[in-house]
Design brief:
There is one protein chain. By secondary structure, this protein is of the alpha/beta class. It has a single domain, classed as Aldolase class I (TIM Barrel, Alpha-Beta Barrel), CATH 3.20.20. The protein has helices at about 15-20, 30-40, 55-60, 120-125, 135-150, 170-180, 200-210, 225-230, 235-240, 240-255, 275-280, 310-320, 340-345; strands at about 5, 65, 70-75, 80-85, 90-100, 105, 110-115, 130, 160, 195-200, 215-220, 260-265, 290-295, 325-330. The strands form three sheets. A ten-stranded mixed β-sheet has the order 3-4-5-6-9-10-11-12-13-14, with helices on one face. Strand 4 (about 80-85) and strand 5 form a beta hairpin. Helix 7 packs parallel to helix 10 (about 240-255). The structure holds iron/sulfur cluster (SF4).
Length: about 350
């Protein structure tokens, strides 16, 4: 594949129109091309069967499809499926399907690797290769949607942007991809069924508010004590809890949206009553929900899961402050304990 060519998924309809008209083609062909790309999920110009062959040749002489190909998958006993995708330039990243009742949630990646270096995260240890393009993200979602229909007999019901990478470090591409996923001319998914998770890039959280986003936002908090958060999430040294809190206040004021906090229960690190008090104090800034996540230790790990008693006391404290709290069991723990491990394993 000629990687110097522009990915057709990066072009807007007016840009495709301009190209086609410049090539002596009719303007309406652009709408047909757009429908193939976004509605029918074409992954090659050969798929575009209602376009004349000479037109398809012109398109493929000038553009390419920046596809992502599923090269490996693994199934968990709990039904979770992890997929390893490969880009045209041979980078690998993961996407996951998580079935629950009659719903299937896709967990998607936005970057190949990650720069954020969170201590508990396998992806963070992989280092950073590059951002996924909006076209690659769209193709990842479209592929997972098809896989969901094939495997579970139902299309995707929800998307969580919690896979490899920090979405707010790939802001434009991620928002463009979400825009395409939600467009009526494409998959038409409601933004309310999409949740983006961030480790807390404070200025970009304000930017989301200014951009009037309509999807859900979740903050990977994991500690509400600066000294501890600095240790497990280096981003906190750049944007500390006070700055994060201010960004969340701004976000809620502008969007009226309830924030979700993700909190990984790390035994002996962030699971004491003092940690719980700091957490409920921090989350007062706006209406919220807290998801406590059970940690899955993996080999060579310096972290461990919280004990039953610590977990119960932690929950009791949060409930005593009338904050909604749920416990999320990590799914797919038998196939890869943490995000990024599949990519690591197959490297
Ligand atoms: S938890 Fe998220 S932000 Fe932190 S290193 Fe892992 S992928 Fe990056």
């Amino acid at each position: 594949m000629d990687l110097t060519k522009t990915d057709i998924r990066e072009l807007s309809q007016p840009e495709i129109e301009a190209f086609l008209v410049g090539m002596g083609e009719k303007k309406f062909r652009a709408a047909q091309v757009m429908e193939w790309i976004w509605k029918k999920g074409a992954s090659s110009f050969d798929n575009m069967s209602n376009l004349p062959k000479p037109l398809r040749d012109k398109l493929s002489d000038n553009f390419r499809f920046g596809n992502v190909e599923c090269v490996y998958s693994v199934a968990s006993v709990d039904g979770t499926r992890k997929f390893l995708f490969e880009t045209c330039d041979s980078h690998r990243f993961e996407g996951v399907l998580i079935p629950s009742g009659d719903r299937v949630t896709a967990c998607i990646s936005t970057q190949i690797g990650c720069q954020m270096g969170c201590a508990f995260c396998a992806t963070g240890q992989l280092g950073f290769k590059r951002n996924l393009t909006s076209g690659e993200m769209f193709h990842q979602v479209f592929s997972l949607d098809r896989l969901s229909s094939e495997i579970f007999g139902t299309p995707l019901s929800n998307i969580v942007i919690m896979g490899m990478g920090e979405p707010l470090m790939n802001y434009e591409n991620t928002l463009t991809a979400i825009g395409n996923i939600c467009s009526e001319k494409s998959m038409g998914m409601s933004p309310q069924r999409i949740t983006m998770s961030t480790c807390g890039i404070a200025p970009q959280i304000k930017r989301l508010a200014d951009d009037g986003i309509r999807f859900n936002l979740s903050i990977s908090l994991h500690s509400a004590i600066d000294s501890k958060r600095n240790e497990i999430m280096p981003i906190n040294r750049k944007y500390n809890l006070a700055e994060l809190s201010e960004a969340i206040r701004y976000f809620h004021e502008k969007t009226g949206t309830r924030i979700t906090y993700e909190y990984l229960m790390l035994g002996g690190i962030n699971d004491s009553l003092d940690d719980a008090r700091a957490l409920t104090e921090f989350t007062k800034v706006s209406p919220c929900k807290i998801n406590l996540i059970e940690y899955n230790p993996h080999p060579d790990d310096r972290f461990r899961k919280s004990g039953k008693v610590e977990l119960e006391n932690f929950i009791k404290h949060i409930e005593s402050r009338n904050v909604v709290v749920t416990i999320r069991k990590s799914k797919g723990s038998d196939i890869a304990a943490a995000c990024g491990q599949l990519a690591n394993m197959k490297k």
